[in-house]
Write a structure and sequence with these properties.
Helix content: 10-25%
Mean pLDDT: 82
Distance between the termini: 61 Å
Low-confidence stretches: 9-18, 180-197, 218-231, 456-477
Shape: globular
Structural class: mainly beta
Number of helices: 9
Largest sheet: 8 strands, mixed
Number of domains: 4
Length: 599
């Protein structure tokens, strides 16, 4: 009996140990832990990147991802994590864990350069030991229930419980706010975001604030003791190399090299390499396509190398003529082009399918992701087709070429357990501004998906959060309540409703997803009611306005058009707005949180 009791107590202690993961709620908590604090660790960069992909948080503190982001599809290298080590809490039957951060994964090539930089340019084991793990509802993968960071035990294939933390949703929002929450109260401020510029600089600022150090992983860049191209720990961050598209479908090389490195080198070369297997520091599967002599510290150059997945620029520096003739150079590996320009697939509205534009041999190509449970897709989408457009401004019937969805060829080159992949290669040269669209039938009306224009400027909407930091530049006559309440569509994110105030009046804002092109049809009789209290019945509104009469405003974003209506009702604590789908008062599709006195 005593032995059984001891076993029971040990079992209870085991359960307590696997479920007692410390939760971090503020950036100060990140400063006070040793997790991934020095190069070449990438855990903090991974956390920063993930925070950029969170669109909003609902009233239950559930994080809502960017509308096209699907961990089930393998985006950015996400894959199922079974929690065999028991380091994370047990899940319910309808929940799953997904992990990201294995930089050897093919999908990881779409991660930004600031996550991958140390991995490309070091060969020490610590460069790939960090992971970010999320728990999701299996049927609603864009809603993130919980977020964890962890790391592998060095030289082992298991995770370290003492290096495992849960990240509170409030901390995710704090990290993701481009202005450290100072703009979070500003209604839907639209900011241009350059992936390698603003976001890169903000990541470096975040790393500095959390105590990240690169000094533990440095060497003398021109030391005669370090002539191997496979340097053990290369952390020079002043170099930027990038592959983009020219107007002829070939590769454009963009570079920035610190001037002192140019001055201290006798010869400077950049090779454009074609990796056929991996961007790891391994030459076996690499072909040099172009060798370029570099004389300026920065510039751009159009090359004749066709745009393809796996292209990678590599910098070679020779401090002297002796080095040039007799020794290996110092090499810096730039980011590897992933074929889709780092853009994840776009969800096809109403179906378990997605669309992606990518380049192969300089040509525009389309990729369809079809969920395996959508087994009869060829019958359902029999008349659906994908149009190829040289400009996002072209009308639907002004395509350059097209192909029916069911004629796409299945490929086995991409491994995902939940989706089958189909591809079509057009003969059209891919150029900046190129776009593909998924149309439901032979008509040119119903567009269910359209990709981001190739090489287009990324625009982000910064939605309100609860960080509570006032914005000194905010106009006092316009303030918002919480972020939009999304409520319509297959993933319940095709439309959203938000309450805000302007000139002391209660106002409503509608977010309509751009892929939701036929929204006026289901919402033809829909209306938004304004209520003095959340206790009012649906037919006891103060005033109302039909959705069709909302005014479109000019600062929408890449994914949503925005419509507004300003009522004559005074804003006051308790005011609420509700979206009613038709002329009846039976049920509100969504209702906002009551207005608070401190807003």
């Amino acid at each position: 009996m005593g032995a059984m009791m001891r076993l029971f107590l040990l079992f209870c202690l085991f359960l307590a140990s696997v479920s007692s993961v410390r939760k971090l709620t503020h950036t100060d908590d990140l400063k006070n832990i040793t997790y991934a604090k020095s190069a070449p660790r990438h855990g903090l960069q991974l956390l920063f990147w993930f925070a950029q992909k969170v669109l909003n948080v609902d009233q239950n503190n559930i994080l809502i991802l960017d509308s096209d982001f699907d961990p089930h599809r393998g985006d950015f290298g996400f894959h199922r994590y079974l929690n065999k080590e028991g380091i994370l809490p047990s899940l319910r039957s309808w929940q799953s864990y997904y992990s990201v951060g294995n930089l050897k994964s093919p999908g990881a090539k779409a991660l930004p350069a600031y996550v991958l930089s140390y991995y490309r340019n070091t060969n020490v084991p610590q460069r790939n030991m960090d992971r970010l793990i999320v728990s999701v509802d299996q049927n609603r993968p864009k809603r993130i229930l919980r977020v964890f960071i962890t790391s592998h035990n060095l030289h082992k294939n298991d995770f370290n419980p003492s290096d495992t933390y849960e990240i509170d949703s409030a901390l995710i929002l704090q990290i993701g706010d481009p202005q450290n929450c100072s703009l979070a109260q500003n209604n839907n401020l639209i900011l241009p975001r350059n992936k390698q510029g603003t976001e890169y600089d903000r990541c470096r600022q975040f790393l500095t604030e959390t105590g990240y150090s690169s000094t533990d992983c440095t060497h003398s860049h021109f030391s005669r003791k370090k002539r191997s191209p496979y340097l053990q720990c290369n952390t020079y961050e002043g170099i930027k190399l990038e592959i983009k598209a020219t107007t002829q479908g070939s590769s454009k090389l963009i570079w920035e090299i610190p001037s002192e490195m140019i001055d201290n080198s006798k010869h400077v070369h950049i090779d454009i390499c074609q990796n056929t297997y991996s961007s790891d520091t391994n030459e076996v599967h690499t072909q040099i396509r172009k060798q370029l002599n570099i004389y300026e510290s920065s510039g751009t150059l159009d090359t004749s190398v066709s745009l393809n997945a796996g292209l990678q620029p590599r910098l070679r520096l020779y401090p002297s003529l002796f080095d040039f003739h007799f020794t290996n150079p110092y090499i810096w590996y730039g980011p590897e082009f992933d074929g889709a320009n780092g853009v994840i697939p776009t969800t096809i509205k109403g179906f378990d399918a997605s669309l992606q534009l990518y380049a192969a041999d300089g040509k525009a190509c389309a990729r369809l992701y079809i969920k395996k449970s959508f087994s009869n897709w060829e019958d359902v989408l029999r008349y659906s087709w994908i149009g190829f457009y040289k400009s996002s401004q072209d009308k639907n019937d002004a395509y350059s070429t097209y192909q029916y969805a069911y004629k796409f060829a299945k490929t086995e080159n991409y491994i995902t357990h939940n989706y089958d992949i189909y591809q079509y290669d057009s003969s059209l040269t891919i150029t900046p501004g190129f776009q593909i669209r998924f149309l439901l039938d032979k008509k040119h009306i119903q567009v269910l998906a359209q990709t981001t224009p190739w090489e287009g400027v990324e625009v982000v909407t910064i939605l309100p959060s609860d960080c509570g930091t006032p914005n000194p530049g905010l106009q006092p006559e316009e303030r918002s309540s919480n972020g939009p309440e999304f409520f319509y569509g297959p993933e319940l994110d095709d439309a959203g409703l938000q309450l805000f105030t302007e000139d002391g009046k209660a106002c409503a804002r509608l977010y309509i997803k751009k892929a939701f092109t036929d929204w006026k049809e289901p919402f033809y009789y829909s209306w938004v009611g304004f209520y003095t209290s959340s206790q009012n019945k649906n037919d006891d509104y103060y005033t109302y306005h039909y959705v069709m009469k909302f005014e479109k405003i000019g600062y929408g974003n890449e994914n949503y058009d925005i419509y507004q209506y300003k009522s004559k009702m005074d804003i006051a604590p308790g005011v609420q707005i509700r979206f009613m789908i038709d002329k009846s008062y039976d049920k509100a599709s969504v209702q906002t949180e009551p207005w608070k006195s401190d807003q």
